[in-house]
Every structure is written in C-alpha cells, then in structure tokens.
Amino acid sequence: MTSNPRPNSNTTDKHPTLHSAPANHQDSSDISSSIPDEFQKGLRMTKVTEKKVKEVQFRIEPDEGRIVYESKTSGIIPLETIKELRFNSDAGYYRVLFKFPLEVQARWTTIVFILDGTYKTIHIIAPSVDVFYRWKSAVQKLYTIRQGLMTGLQNNELRDALWEKQYWKGADRNNDQKLDFNELKALCLRLNLNFLEADLKKVFKEADVNNRGYLDFIDFKRFVKIVKKQPEVETLYSNLCTSGASDKLSFAMFEKFMHDSQESQLTQQELKDVFAKYSQTTPANETTQSPLSTTDSAPKTESFMNRDSFSAFLRSMDNSVFPDRYGPVHHDMTKPISEYFISSSHNTYLIGHQLVGISTIEGYIRALLHSCRTVELDIYDGDEEPMVFHGKTFTSKVPVREVCQAIAKYAFVASPYPVVISAEVHCGVKQQDMVVKAMQTVFGNALISAPVDGRPKLECLPSPEDLKGRILLKAKNLFVAAQLESLQAMRDAEAAAQRRAEIEAEVSATSSSSSSEDDTSIIAELRSLKHRIREKTSRRKAAKKPKVCMSMNLLSLLVYTVGVKCRGFGGQQYAPEHMFSLSENSANKYLEGSFKDVIKHTQTHMIRVYPKGTRVSSSNYEPHRFWAAGAQVVALNLQTFDIGYMINQVMFERNGRSGYVRKPAALLPSGEELLNKHTQHYLDVTVISAQQLPRPRDALGHEIIDKSIIDPYVEVSLHIPLWSKSPFLPGGDVVSGKTSVTYSPPNTKASTTEATSGRTVSFKTKSVKNNGFNPVWNEELCIPFDCVGDMKELIFVRFSVRQQGDDVDDEPLASYCAPLGCLQHGFRYLPLHDSQLAQYLFSTLFVEIKIRDVKKA
Q: What UniProt keywords are attached to this protein's entry (predicted)?
C-alpha cells in the first residue's frame, strides 16, 4: 500500500492555549511590575462584536488576575476562564468575517473565554502595532503565570503571594494601603469566613502588632497566616513525629509515612530526593556523636522537615493526587490504533443547539485545542461548493474548505497524534470531488491516501505512532456497503431456503402422524410461518437496489477507516479497516445482548458511538458505559458542560493529554480471562477539610456577595460502568456515623435530556455551618463498588462541594473528578473546578483516600 510521507510537525504554529508552558518562578511584585502602567491604568482600544464597533477602555489588573473593559455592565474576563488567546493571523477568520481590511490583522486580538456556562469571544484592535505588541506580551505573560499556577507547576509561595495581593487590593476600599476593622470585617464576609465580632477583634489585635488600629500589608499577611492555620495538618504532623522526639520530622519518619499512608512506589533514593527538597539542615545534637571517636571531622548535621515544610510538601506536585494529569505521553503508542480510547467530538461544527445552532469553525478549534482526535463533518451540496451543517435543521452553514483550513492549522497544536475526520457525505459526486480537492490542497502530505485498486489486504491497523502527524478520513464506502449487503442477502436467502425445507419436513411429518386439534393448530402455524418467509423473500427481491453514487477520488482517501454498516457481532466477518458508527440506542441494544462479543470485536476493530438524534439540547451520555465495552471513539457534544463532558475530559487528562489512552488489559487481545475477574471493594474517603471555597459568580463574572456565609457539605460519588447484573450494595449502614448510601440505577433508555448512564453510588458528609473559608469535616465515607477485570480507570469519582439547602439539580460550588484507578492514595489536596472545569486558583479539598478489597476473584 502506498501513502504520502508524514509532514514535518515542527512547522506547526504554537498557540497560547490551556496547555501553555508555565513561566519561570517569580514573586508577586515582579508580576505586577512586569505589566506596563499604560495597561494597568487603562488604554482605549477598539472592541468589535457582531453588532457594533466601539472604542472602549481596557485595563489589566495583574493582582486580581483579570482583564476589565468598559461596558454598561462592567465587563470582566477572569484569566482562569480564558480558553484561548489568538493574535494576528490566528484571528484572521474573525477579521474576514467582520469585513475588516487586512492591515488591521497586525493589531487584532481575539480572546475566547467561558462565563456562566457559555463560550464567549471578544475581539480587540490596538491603536498601533507597537501598542499591540506590548499588549500581547503583557496578556500572554500574566495568562501563562496563572495557567502555571492552576496546573500545579508553580510554587506554593507564589500562589500564596498572589492570593494575598488579590484580596488585599480588593479589601482596601479607600486605596490608602490600610485596612481598618470594618474593611477587614467586609473581607471576611467575602472570604466566607464567619467570626463573632469579639473573636475577629481579637485576631485583628493579634495581627496589629504596632497597635495602630489598622493593618498595613505586613500586618495583613500576619492576619492571613493566623486564619489559614490548619489544625488538621498540624495534628497529622505531630502524630508522625515519634513520641518524645523534638518537633522534627526525620527522613525515617517521612519514609514510613510515604510507605504506610501514601502507599508510595518510589525507591528510597527517590524518597531521599523528595525529602531533600523540603527539609532543613542543622547541626546534629552533640550527644548523638560517638564518645569513642578520636578523629577530627566536620560537624555532623541532620535534616528534617518542620511543620511548614511538611505542609508545603502535602500541597506540592510531589504529592499530587493525579500525577498523570501533568506528565508527558507515557503509554506505549506503537500498538494498533484499535487498542486505544480516542478523544472524540460529535457534531463538531455546532457551538449550540442541534436544531437552530450556529455552524462554525470555532467548534473545530476548541475541540482540537482540547486534544480531541476525531472530529465530525456533515457535508451537503452547496450552491457553489460543499457545505457543512446539520441536515434537516435550521443551523447555519460553513464551507468545507474553511473547516479544513481550521483543522490544518490546529490539528497538531495540542497533540502530534493522528486526527480522524468522521464525515457523513450527503453531496453528489461533483461536490464529493470538490471535498477531496479541498482536503488535498489544505492538508497536503498529512492526508492519508492510497490507490483504489491493488491495495494489499490489511492484517491489522497501524499504530498512533505510525500515523503521527497524519489526517485520516472516515466515511462510508458505498461500494463495500453494497457488496456486504449483497453478501448478506445471499446468506439470508440460503438460511430462508434451509428454514423452508425444515418447515416443509415438519408439516409433512405432522400431517401423516395425527389429525388432532392441537396438531391442526401446529400445522396452521407452521404454514403461516412458511408464508411469511416467502413474502419477506419476495419483498427483498422486489426492492430496487440503490444506485451507488460515490467519487473514486473520495474512495482513495478511505484507507484505515472505512465506514460500513454494522451487521451484528459474533460470527460476522469484517476487515481490520472496516469501522461502523452506532447511535447510543443501537449500542445499548448490542451491549445488552452480546457484551463480550462487542469487546471481542473491538480488540481488533474500531467502532464509533454517537449521541442519539433526539438530544436536541446537545446533552451527553456518560461515555464510560461504552468504553467498558471497548468502543474506541465515543463521541460527545463538547459544547455542553454536563457529567458526560466532565468524565470525557478527565479521562483524556491522562497520557500527556495526547487524545489517546491505551485500553486496560482486560479489553486488549488475550484479555478474556481478566473479564471473568469480578471483585468487590470499598472506596474509603476521609473528607478532612476545604480551603478558600469560591463565591459563586454571576453571568458577568462578578462575585455574588450577600450577607450570608455558606454551609458547605461534600458529596462523593462513584460512576460505575454497567458490567454486572447486580451492584455491590451491602445491606444496612455501611459507613461510620449515620450517613448512608444513595444509589442511582443505570439508565439506558434515557430521555432527550438525561444521560445514558452506568451506576452511581454516592455519600454525603454533614454540613459545616457558616464557614466557606476553612471548613473541617473529618468525616469518613465508605463507598462500595464492584469492578471487572481490575478496570478501575473506567470508574470515575467525583467530589462535589455543595451548599446546604440547594436543589439537587443545582451546580455545585466546586468539584473535582478523576478516574478512580489513577488517584494516588493517602493524604492529598484535590484542586477544585467550576462546572466548566476551569480550575479555581486558591480552592482545594483535603482528603485521605484508600481502597479496601472485600472480595477478590
């Protein structure tokens, strides 16, 4: 087989996206001083929207971490909500869309961000090229620092310093570099920190060491240190220090903690290296030296962790709960592509409603920058060129040519591994050729193609490594489909003829043996069945065979991903390159009837599952239902932030965010024995405390601050695939205290808004009254779950921090979700996110995680 050479992936433009590299460490004053005064004070630039063009003032607030612009509602763009920054030609699509001249492109900025659950874009034109480059440098620098902090790649000192600066500036309402008692009281309300007035006065006085009646910034830092104390961490530290020893954590104690509590797999030398990063060195106690020593030598020293350094270690990347989120690609990428789960998008061209939404290249850019590796095109005849849109709806249209240009530009920015274009081709042969021409022109050597005739038979599919930097087209091969239909018709005819012969023999035997009423009834039934088979055969023969209308040029692009119709599993023969798409309803029917047959097929062949057409609101199913059957391409509506979206995103946080995750061993060839391994477990989670829980924001990005302090509680839920007939749910109360389990059964016949789901088992803590700043629960939850083939990475755990009294359907204040099998055990800080998975910079949840085996296979 021939194919074009790979492109040079090093030529791909890099964009400052979610995956930007972190900036070097620096202190908070450097960050603020590195932003030019002209942007901190405010500079007038042109703001462009679909409706109007207006000159407004833009201001960068580095300490608060946001961009502010003039508007009737006071526009705010928190840096944590930014999904992408585009400059110059990267934003050229919008410059053309809004009909601006080419010379403006050198001064153009587009910011894509999320507020109130909705993607938003803002377009800015700088007054000159010089101003543009200063603006670009300032925005990129600040954005990159904040992104580094959110992904855990910056030091805790910088994060703490930013927090202090941000809240100091917000609390200093008079801008006089002083906080009086009333300003501090208002700040505590904003921080969800409830103090009795007498207690707050006591802490205020403790921080005001000069007794001046106000706090300057140094005093404020002292106040912050007081209120941020974590007695729960201090207690853990004290328990680790051996009885009678000084208040120092030695390496031996640290090593024991890492083995016993954290279940660390690091070697002793690796543990020593970690310990050295956080320990201090002092002269050893002279009494520990040998009195028999007569030789002169350098003074002995000892290393130890104190309370602060141990606390810093717990919060650090060295103690990350989900290290796979931050690491490089580490899965073996040389196996057939059928052995991987692939991050996939459904109706990628839509950014809203399925019936009346907007078709745009924006959906492709967003998907590809989130490492999505399969995108979808629905292609129809246009007036002059083929167009992409949702057929039989009122959605807008976008040219195939523009979609290809967007894919080419962004395909390999986030990941170098292959992109599959899943196309539904509804246009005629003439415009099919135009589709091929557009792809060949835009993708060049990256596009996989091969001659239609003379292709050698494939034995197995190539690997992601083999296809690095390549673009594949998946579409239905109408010629192969017709051949398979003809073959199936022949098999059906043979089966019908054999069945007719059997019926005739049965009728003949029954007629000659007896004439009772029962026998007469049987004869009538058999004759009726014979008549129905003849009728069905006649209809099939009478049916006019559809004329195959497919471009031979299009056929040349179908090489490793050839679309065919699913004819069932078990006994059916498919070539390795044959790939079919199943709606969630069809997939559910196959899983209910032949779960293991589906798994066997997906060990060597690719299948794609997509949401049913009635999901007009672009809701999602829970994808792990289909991953557990081995389905590689489980497509989701990435514009909808629901539990299905969340599970999909955290699944592909793994393996360097490459968009490819190797399947667990039970789903790979020769994994049949593992599928017979059924086990039962408890997830034992001690929810210890939370730190700086966020205030909710309104649709404009403003914090909602009222007179009340939240009463938070934590809900921990497991989302488990439907891989056994009955769940593991022990009778009675299975947790300490009075908290009990909430079980949600699977839903495979969901409505248009509900998700096809697996099982959900959840527990809740009690609520903590009037404290959203540092609530402490210290409550153990024991959550039962069953597992097949040790596939814990296909069970997803979600921690949701909620407000007491909120409706069950309300979004949580903050949450964290991850594959259960990827979580590190022991004492860990969980980063918390909003419902769109934007990470809160300062909010965390402190927990202890263990998994306890109940029944081993």
A: Calcium, Hydrolase, Lipid degradation, Lipid metabolism, Transducer
